[in-house]
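Subject — a protein and its fold

Tokens — whole-number codes for backbone shape
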Amino acid sequence: VNLAQRRVAVAAHQSPWATIVTCADSRVPPELIFGGLGVGELFVARNAGNLVDTGTLGTIEYGTAVLGS
């Protein structure tokens, strides 16, 4: 499946299997670190320093409570 087709497939609904907190560093792509996963498979919160502040915590809670990751 190519990227355009996958984006259409997940446009209306996402169901990632994991929520990840990672660094905003462009050299650390979580999709590649976790085995080359594609669009819609991870719910990623990225920020400088991998810090979990109130906003990031809300993102993690959303990923687990709403998306079921």
Observations:
- Residues 16 and 24 are 19 Å apart (CA to CA).
- The longest strand covers residues 18-23.
